[in-house]
Every structure is written in structure tokens, then in C-alpha cells.
Amino acid sequence: MPSPCTHDLSRLVRAGLIRAGQLAAVSAAACLAYGVAVEPRSFRLRRVTVPVLPPGRRPIRVLHISDLHLTSGQSAKIAWVRSLAALAPDFIVNTGDNIAAPAALKALRRALAPFAGIPGVFVFGSNDYTGPSRVNPLRYFGLARRRYGGPAALPLPTAALAGLLAEYGWTDIQERRAVVEVAGTTLEVRGCGDAHIGLDGYARVAGPPAGETLLAVTHAPYQRVLDQMVIDQASLILAGHTHGGQVCLPGGIALTTNCDLPRLQAKGLSVHRYGAGWAFLHVSAGLGQSPYAPYRFCCPPEATLLTLVPRDQPA
User: Of 5, 48, 78, nearest to 238 (Cα)?
Assistant: First the structure.
């Protein structure tokens, strides 16, 4: 027969397991509440220096914004984006996924109005064509194939969105090249459509650079696109799409990039290498997330001010 000591030990083990389960449930609920109510509103400005200009040139301040996924009621996000105009950027790069609903176009106009007249460029992501739809989160980790049920994604006012950004003096560079003079340097900026939905047509703009420094822009940083940009001697590639992983381990380590980019390059400045060539790569963690996945963890929403400096200066 089991001894009384054995029964006591079993009770202690069961009580310990129950207590551990309760603590785990409370911790998970707290993390979820933080990820929904706090971190998505904890906007950050990332600052990086990138040595890509010819020697002796003045620095160029580039504001990179991406993945706002804006809805009409996001007053805190709108106010924070407007405040970035105080940085007095020389140039703006918008890498797409601007709005999450047709009615949000008016909110986007308010958010971006302070930047009118500052030169810039833009490309679109999938959520500039159609609104978000319900997605099984496990799909991002390759653990599920099916979407949740629900209504089809709403078409977004893409033409009106492009017109709004053009009003501010920004150029659509999807499968296009633009040569601009910024702070005394001739930049060539070229881009392509969203590779995540198969709209990348970089081959239409491929070729040697025409400016003194080539900036290449895309929404989703798939390696097939980045490789072509490196072949064409891009100095700096700018992209969004990844949301920095959106839900990360402590320290900001991404669990997924939602593309084939390595997880350690999910956000911030890194280097993309292909063959004997390489280019700086900046991936924005973005300023928003889908209304159907309204949480962030260890990955605050962000915009980035990149200061481009001569190549003979350290980064």
C-alpha cells in the first residue's frame, strides 16, 4: 500500500501543477492585454546613419514610413505621424499598406498633410488594393493553410490613394525610375510592386544606375527582388511588410517575417548580399497591424529617420 508520505507528495505535485497552470494563464492574459492595449500605441522613432553618398556631399535625411494600416479612429497614431514633420526630412519613402478600410483615406490625409511639399516616393502593398481579411495566425508560421471564414476583403480606393500621395509631391515608382536632386546629390530611386502578391515586375526597371546613388524600394523584401537590386548596384534598399515580426521574443527577435527574408533582418538596417555584391537593406517594422491581428509584443510600431552620409564616413 502507498504510504501517507506518497499521498502527501502526490497532493503537493498536483497543487503545484495547478498553481503553475494558473500563473501561466494569468501571464498569458497579461501579455495579450499588453500586446493589444499598450504596445501598438508605443510609437518609436528609429534613427540610423547609412554611408551611401559620394564623398564630400551634404547629409540627406530620409524619413521611411510603412504599414500604417490606418483606420479612422486611430487618433493617437495620426497625431504621432503628424509630429514627425518636426524632423524636417529632405525626402520621404513610403513602402505601402497605408489604410485598412475605404473610410480611412480621410484619416490618412490628416496624418500626412504636414509633409505636403517634401519630395518623396511610394510603392503599394496588398493592403493598398484590398482591405485585410481574417487569417489564421498559424499560417504565418507555416502551420496552417486555411484562412478563417468570413466576408471577402473589401476593395480599397487605390486610385484615390495614389492621387492623394501625388498631391503631396510624391512619385509612384512601382516599375518606374525617378531621378531627383536632393541636398546637392542626384539620387535615382526605382521600385517595384508587392512581391507578396506576385506584383513585382522589377525587370521593367532593371539596369545600371543613372544617378550618383541608387535607392531601390519595394513593399515586401523577398530575396528574388533584393537579389536583382543588388545586381543593379543599389546602395540602399528600403522595404516594409514584415511588421518587424509583430510578435517577437524578448529582445525583439522575430518569430517570422511573412516572407523569405531571414528573421534576424526582420527590421532595422542590415546588409543583403548576393554573389559578389551587397547593398544596405532597411526594413521598417511599420506603424500598424491588421484590425484582425491587433497586437504587438516586443516589437513597437516605428518609423525611421535615415541619415545618408558620404561613403567615407562610418555608419
Answer: 48
Tell me 250's DSSP state. Answer: T
Residue matched to cell numbers 521593367:
204
| Letter string b/e over residues 282-302, b meaning 16 or more CB atoms within 10 A of that residue's CB | bbbbbbbbbeebebbbbbbbb
The answer for residues whose C-beta is within 8 angstroms of residue 78's C-beta and 6 or more apart is 70, 107, 110, 111
Asked whether 237 and 281 are in contact (CB, 8 A), the reply is: yes
By three-state DSSP, how is residue 299 classified?
Answer: coil
State the pTM of this model.
Answer: 0.89
Read out DSSP for 178-212?
Answer: EEEEETTEEEEEEE---GGGT---GGGT-SS-SSS
Distance CA 114, CA 288 (A): 20
Structural domain boundaries in the chain: 1-37, 44-310
% helix, strand, coil for the chain, step of 5: 35, 25, 40
CATH hierarchy code of domain 44-310: 3.60.21.10
Q: What is the sign, positive or negative, of the torsion defined by CA atoms of 241, 247, 250, 254?
A: negative
CA distance 240 to 252: 16
What are residue 297's DSSP bridge partners? Answer: 247
- From CA 143, how far away is CA 164, in angstroms rounded? 39
How would you write the pLDDT of the chain (315 residues) with one tens digit per residue?
556 666 666 776 676 666 765 555 555 555 666 787 899 999 999 999 999 999 999 999 999 999 999 999 999 999 999 999 999 999 999 999 999 999 999 999 999 999 999 999 999 999 999 998 776 555 555 554 555 444 567 899 999 999 999 999 999 999 999 999 999 999 999 999 999 999 999 999 999 999 899 999 999 999 999 999 999 999 999 999 999 999 999 999 999 999 999 999 999 999 999 999 999 999 999 999 999 989 999 999 999 999 999 998 765
